[in-house]
Amino acid sequence: MSNETEPQNDENQNTAEASEQAQAVAEAAEALAGSEGDDSLDSEANAASDDVAKVAAERDQYRDAALRAQAELENYRKRVAREAENSAKFLTLPLVRDLLPALDNLARTVQAAEQTGNVDDLIQGLQMIQGQFDQVFGNYSAKPIEALGQPFDPNLHEALQQMPSADHPPMTVIQELERGYVMHDRVIRPSKVIVASAPAE
Predict the structure, then answer these.
(1) Domain count within the chain
(2) Are residues 48 and 97 in the same domain?
(3) Contact 195, 171 (CB under 8 A)
(4) Is residue 85 domain-shared with residue 128, that is, in the same domain?
(5) Rounded CA separation 201/103 (Å)
(6) Contact assessment for residue 143 and residue 184, using Cβ atoms and an 8 Å cutoff
(7) What angle do CA 150, 156, 159 make, to 5 degrees?
(8) Region for residue 186 given its phi and psi (left: phi exceeds 0; alpha: psi -120 to 50; beta: otherwise)
(9) In which domain, by residue range, is 105 found?
(10) Beta strand ranges found along the chain (DSSP E)
(11) What are phi and psi of 152, to 5 degrees?
């Protein structure tokens, strides 16, 4: 009787050991799976952190570029405003520079007339200076208005007086008191003139 019980106990013991071993293997597998899951989570967290860092770096880069562009635009606006101010301040500088030779000739003509007392030389010098002024004005597209002998044009002429004349048709400019000028199609100032009227009977 005792001989039959001993083999059965051995079998039960072997079964228990096998069960314990299976349980240990299962726990080890679970532990291994758990550790692999942790590694996967860590890997995903690291990847997300890298993405956040990359986006933050790009954001900082674009922000710096925008700030630089804004600063450059502000500097450009200031430079343009400064250049416009200087251009307006010295707008007439070329004209003044071109008029200086004529002014110098006028001074020399007056000085020569005072020394010689020759009226003919004075008149000739003044006529030459007048031609210089006309040339300078022409360089700036300012041209004298033709008035003498022309029909009166209220757009170009300003009549200061009417004078009876048998030699000219009525409303003809017979004398120019002050020369007028035009620039392109705009009248700088009209010519001040005397116009003919019908002679008194």
Answers:
(1) 3
(2) no
(3) yes
(4) no
(5) 49
(6) no
(7) 75
(8) beta
(9) 92-140
(10) 142-144, 157-164, 173-178, 181-183, 186-189, 191-197
(11) -65, 130
Token pair of 30 as six digits: 């679970």
> How many residues would you count in the chain?
201
Strand partners, 176: 193
Q: Tokens standing for 129?
A: 């200076």
Q: Which amino acid is at 93?
A: L
pTM, two decimals, is 0.55
Amino acid at position 20, single letter: E
pLDDT (tens digit, 0 to 9) for every residue of the chain, 201 residues total? 444 445 455 555 655 565 666 566 556 555 545 544 455 666 777 777 778 888 888 999 999 999 999 999 999 999 999 999 888 888 888 888 999 999 998 888 888 888 888 888 888 889 999 899 999 999 999 999 999 999 999 999 999 999 999 889 999 999 999 999 999 989 999 999 999 998 876
Statement to judge: residues 69 and 151 lie in one domain: no
- Chain center to CA of 126: 45
Residue 125 one-letter amino acid: G
